[in-house]
Amino acid sequence: MGSDARKVLGWVLMGLAVVWGAGCKKDAPAASAPVDAGGEAAATVDAGVPDAGALAKVSKPLRFSNVGLKHVQDGGVTVTYTLTNPGTAQGRGRTCLMLLDERGLAIDSRLIGFITVKGGWEDTFEDATSVDDLRWNQARSLMLFTTASAVSCSESPPAPTSEPFRMLPTGTPAPANLPLPDPPPDSTPADIEVSGLQLRQGGTPPDPTLTYTVKNVSDRRASGTGCLRAYAREGSYALEEVDVGEFDLAPAASSTQTVPVAFHKARHWEEATVLRFFVDPYGCEMSGGAGNPGLPVDLPAKADSEEAHHDAE
Fold it and tell me: Whole-angstrom Cα distance, residue 60 to residue 117?
């Protein structure tokens, strides 16, 4: 190849390199977030970034103000608030709402919204969620806090990027001298003691009712759902499984439940010879493993057996 041809080829390759480089420029990594005065990286992880890594210390955390709370009878909760970003870097992430009991233990910690606040600015937000009466009625205070986008509201220990804001269930600000507790851990069957299992047939409503008492024997909060399974014989697959009652208990607390039991197919009451009761954080969906054999429940007397007994009298 002649020297002129080499020069032309060289210019072509250089031009392609410039075009390729301009069209494929990568974004700067998250680690290069702006640094506030004080030398520590601010929380500026973009929403949706899957592997943002561990959250850096926040030198200037976000601040809540003008917080309003509205709770309605159907469980709806609306929270309005202003967030101020005193740093120079944009803050992005999640807003979390934590419910605390009278001991300051977390009943629930949930995501209620997403936020973006420019450095040196403030913005106002309105978020909504739904909290069932079982948990809301035990709440003695609430905490609002923000986390980085890749950090869950239920992460333990929490990694807040804001100053936690504490208030009463009425929305009134509460003393802010309490630390942010760990979110509630998943309960295990060993955390719950079950007693008083009794299945009654008939009455109003016509479906059988199951009564039982659950007690939290652990040193932390425990929650879950009861599950009743019916089997044609011991060791067979379940004919039916239904969730029966929900509980959320402080340490040493107990609750007695009386719950109607409605099988999907009424004939299964006649076919069942074995009933077993389970408790699990997720009810029938996850219960019944090797570590959770359940408890036997006496079958209710059949209607024809009751009539025969009455005739004999």
Answer: 13
For residue 244, count other CB atoms closer than 10 A to its CB.
25
What CATH number did the domain enclosing 138 receive? 2.60.40.10
Number of domains in the chain: 2
Q: Are residues 36 and 163 in the same domain?
A: yes
User: Of all helices (H) and strands (E), which one includes residue 13?
Assistant: helix 3-23
Prediction pTM value: 0.65
Buried b (16+ CB within 10 A) or exposed e, 199-218: bebeeeeebbbbebebbbeb
175: amino acid identity, one letter: P
Q: Do residues 277 and 297 make contact, with C-beta atoms less than 8 angstroms apart?
A: yes
Q: Which domain holds residue 199?
A: 189-309
User: What is the C-alpha to C-alpha distance for residues 146 and 243, in angstroms, rounded to an integer?
Assistant: 34
Asked, for residue 237, whether it belongs to a domain, the answer is: yes
pLDDT digits (tens, 9 = 90+) for 34-64: 333 333 333 333 332 333 333 334 468 999 9
Residue 135 in any domain: the answer is yes
